[in-house]
């Protein structure tokens, strides 16, 4: 994944660059709108993280020009403007998400992962088999050999998300962001309750294999492949 970070605050910009680089994500950066727009139009990026209040060209104008040029790169707006109408305007102009300052890096990272997943979901394998458990995104089902495991829509979304990212620890915030829409939130307790129910449903069947869902205490959940 490669990100472009357009942010005029040097401390914030550098902290984002260091944070994403430490996660193995490549970044380019720009401190003003003019340089940021030039980079965005002339280089391929998976996601652009865009401040609105920028010297040179403001963020909303950058977003407008990106969409007028038919560039479909995903855009996350970062802004101190927290008014409801500001969020609506940003999304209507073509942003994929809107995050108000101050924010946590973990939440921004979760949103980057969520938006990246939307962008490449068609590239995911429709059927994934791990430890003889078969997840089928076409039929929205999970089964073990010939045994069907009856899951609710949210339970399936959790397992689908984790199966599509094997061996990657996902926090409950990341899981929530991926199984809910932009304006909903599923609490940590609710996600943990869903996972507990999934485990119980699997144990209720005569299955000898171990379901590969693991918990890294204090960090989140992952599918061990």
UniProtKB/TrEMBL annotation:
Tell me which UniProt keywords the record has, alphabetically: DNA-binding, Phosphoprotein
Phosphoprotein among keywords: yes
Q: Does the keyword NAD apply?
A: no
GO terms, biological process: regulation of DNA-templated transcription
Under CDD domains, the record lists: trans_reg_C (cd00383)
> PROSITE patterns given for it?
OMPR_PHOB, RESPONSE_REGULATORY
Q: Which SMART domains match?
A: REC, Trans_reg_C
According to the UniProt record, which residues make up the DNA-binding region? Answer: 125-225
Domain (OmpR/PhoB-type): residue spans on this chain: 125-225
Q: Name one GO cellular component term.
A: cytosol
Q: Name all Response regulatory domain ranges.
A: 2-116
4-aspartylphosphate carried by residues:
51
What would be an example GO MF term here? transcription cis-regulatory region binding
Protein name, as recorded: DNA-binding response regulator
């Amino acid at each position: 994944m490669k990100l472009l970070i357009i942010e005029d605050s040097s401390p914030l910009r550098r902290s984002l660059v260091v944070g994403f680089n430490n996660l193995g994500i490549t970044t380019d950066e720009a401190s003003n709108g003019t340089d940021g727009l030039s980079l965005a139009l002339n280089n391929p990026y998976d996601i652009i993280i865009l401040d609105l209040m920028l010297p040179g060209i403001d963020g909303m104008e950058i977003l407008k020009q990106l969409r007028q040029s038919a560039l479909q790169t995903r855009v996350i707006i970062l802004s101190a403007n927290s008014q409801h109408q500001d969020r609506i305007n940003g999304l209507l102009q073509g942003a994929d998400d809107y995050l108000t300052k101050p924010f946590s890096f973990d939440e921004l990272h979760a949103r980057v992962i969520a938006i990246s997943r939307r962008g490449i979901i068609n590239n995911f394998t429709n059927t994934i088999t791990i430890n003889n458990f078969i997840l089928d995104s076409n039929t929205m089902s999970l089964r073990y050999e010939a045994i069907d495991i009856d899951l609710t829509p949210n339970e399936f979304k959790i397992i689908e998300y984790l199966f599509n990212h094997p061996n990657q620890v996902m926090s409950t915030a990341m899981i929530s962001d991926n199984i809910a829409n932009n304006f909903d939130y599923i609490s940590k307790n609710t996600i943990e309750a869903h996972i507990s129910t999934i485990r119980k449903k699997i144990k209720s069947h005569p299955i000898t294999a171990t379901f590969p869902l693991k918990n890294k205490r204090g960090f989140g959940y992952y599918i061990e492949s």
